[in-house]
Design a protein that fits this description.
Shape: elongated
Oligomer: single chain
Keywords: Kelch repeat, Repeat
Protein name: Kelch-like protein diablo
Organism: Portunus trituberculatus
Function: Probable substrate-specific adapter of an E3 ubiquitin-protein ligase complex which mediates the ubiquitination and subsequent proteasomal degradation of target proteins. May have a role in synapse differentiation and growth.
Radius of gyration: 29 Å
Distance between the termini: 63 Å
Strand content: 25-35%
Largest sheet: 5 strands, antiparallel
GO molecular function: actin binding
């Protein structure tokens, strides 16, 4: 500018439009000292100057500072700054923040300063929100009502960005009575066919925005040994990723369940000085906030037990313990139920007979427990617990005794898969190779299919009408007995298929369905050297 034939060469004064003296002062200070003093009063001036002269390290520092200072009072301004200076990382962070605080933000005056482009992006960016879709609809209605004349034309586009299928009918009817909203709402409803399906998010979710049902693998063993690592598979991503880690010493044989889309990991055992230690403590993971919390411990320590959700409670049944049964009859397994609303455990009727390494599932208001070990004996017996009667009711035994298997439910039936039993003649361990089905209406069992790769200590779950068998032991041989094979059986179509295998050979893990935010950027699970 000063040496070429440019106008500024001959000017006594040059104006840098959009760059303030305060901002340029900080840039000069940084250039000569490598020190940058940012605060809320100067960060925008510094960012404007740094963007103007392309000092990218300072631009990044300003972006990181704004992200660290993000709150409800400044998030709308930070969104505008991020868009003005094309700070894509900051923009993603601020819209994720606004989504996760949408209920409170929607009631603030600053929310009305969002432009229609910003509001449309907020509704379409696929981040989890902290309120129901009915509340999102009313929040949008409030934004439209703030300047009805200017904003009415944007109603159709905003309404199309909502998941109206999840809005309860009373809320839709209330919104239709609001000024200027009746006709565009009816038009969008007709176009989307709203009202033909159940107006609710999936069970356990306040809102399905930004979430996807994942297959989650909890802990277990691999060639590298025992792990507390939790990984997940999103169909949209098509690969296994790391999710979180159980906040406890490395352990196994705990109870695992999902209630209200929170993952519970309770009890289990760990090795200390070559001795197995069993504990009663539990932890709860919220995938929405990526946060673990502690919970009240069970009345007694347990491992190799079942943890099952029924009517909003968690039921811990049977298992091994270091303590005596605290007065229970020797032929009973102590059971207890956890209420998450009160964070308390309550003792319940004992299951007839000692039992560990069994399967359990809830079906039509009853808790079913099938198979397992009583001492050294593999069981085939099946019981159903009725909370109303506070009693265990005997049911038809399984077709084959099983231990280390899984019980799952689908379409009003109970299925058992995996596990092993012993031949009576030679006490040889045999893998159970069938998937058996129990019909509660007739109290009968039947064979549904045979597993292509029989195994035990596998992760077994049902997602979308498909039975998944993940990893496990397929042999009692000393070497090469573990696998990462994933097979799935379509319970409706009656056929087997295979999925991409888990990157590692795994066993003694648990698999559960859990809704996980799609916006996570986690590391992939890497294959282990064999």
């Amino acid at each position: 500018m000063f040496t070429d034939e440019m106008r500024e060469r001959g000017q006594a004064e040059i104006r840098l439009n959009g760059v303030s003296a305060a901002g340029l002062h900080c840039l000069l200070e940084y250039a000569y000292t490598s020190r940058l003093s940012l605060n809320l009063a100067n960060v925008q001036d510094v960012l404007a100057a740094a963007a103007h002269v392309q000092v990218l390290t300072v631009v990044e520092a300003c972006s990181n500072y704004l992200q660290a200072q993000l709150d409800l009072d400044n998030c709308v301004d930070v969104a505008t700054i991020a868009e003005t200076y094309s700070l894509h990382g900051l923009r993603r962070r601020v819209y994720a923040f606004m989504s996760s605080h949408l209920h409170k933000l929607g009631k603030m005056a600053d929310f009305q300063r969002l432009t229609v482009v910003q509001l449309l992006h907020l509704l379409s960016c696929d981040y989890p929100v902290d309120c129901s879709e009915g509340q999102v609809l009313l929040t949008v209605a409030g934004w439209l009502a703030h300047c009805p004349v200017e904003r009415a034309r944007h109603a159709p586009a905003l309404l199309r960005a909502l998941n109206l299928h999840e809005v309860p009918t009373p809320v839709l009817e209330h919104a239709a009575r609001l000024p200027g909203l009746a006709e565009p709402l009816r038009a969008v409803q007709r176009a989307l066919g709203v009202g033909r399906g159940p107006p609710a998010p999936p069970t356990g979710l306040v809102n399905s925005r930004g979430l996807e049902l994942a297959v989650v693998k909890v802990g277990g063993f691999s060639i590298g040994g025992i792990t507390n690592e939790i990984t997940y598979y999103l169909p949209s991503a098509g690969r296994w990723r790391h999710l979180t880690t159980i906040p406890h010493v490395e352990q196994c044989n705990y109870g695992t369940a999902v209630l209200a889309n929170q993952l519970y990991v309770i009890g289990g055992c760990f090795n200390q000085a070559l001795q197995e230690n069993i504990h009663p403590f539990g932890f709860r993971y919220n995938p929405h906030h990526n946060k673990w919390t502690t919970m009240a411990p069970m009345h007694r320590e347990r491992c190799r037990f079942s943890l099952t959700v029924l009517a909003g409670l968690l039921y811990a049944v049977g298992g091994a313990s270091e303590a005596a049964d605290d007065g229970a009859a020797e032929d009973d397994s102590l059971c207890e139920a956890y209420n998450p609303a009160t964070d308390t455990w309550t003792s319940m009727a004992g299951l007839p007979g000692a039992r560990a390494q069994h399967g359990a599932a809830a079906l039509e208001g009853l808790l079913y427990v099938a198979g397992g070990l009583e001492g050294e004996r593999v069981l085939a017996s099946c019981y159903a617990y009725s909370p109303a009667a506070a009693a265990w009711l005997p049911r038809a035994p399984m077709l084959t005794p099983r231990a280390d298997h899984a019980c799952v439910t689908h379409a009003g039936r109970l299925y058992v898969c995996g596990g092993w039993y012993e031949e009576e003649a030679g006490n040889t361990r045999v893998l159970a190779d069938t998937v058996d089905c129990y019909d509660p209406r007739t109290d009968t069992w039947s064979v549904v299919t045979r597993v292509p790769t029989p195994r035990y200590h596998a992760g077994i779950l049902v997602v979308g009408g498909r039975l998944y068998v993940v990893g496990g032991f397929h042999s009692d041989a000393t070497f090469d007995r573990a696998t990462g094979v994933i097979e799935c059986y379509d319970l409706e179509a009656g056929r087997w298929g295979t999925e991409q295998p888990y990157p590692q050979d795994i066993w003694e893990h648990v698999c559960v369905p859990l809704y996980v935010p799609r916006c996570r950027d986690d590391m992939d699970v890497l294959a282990e050297a064999k």
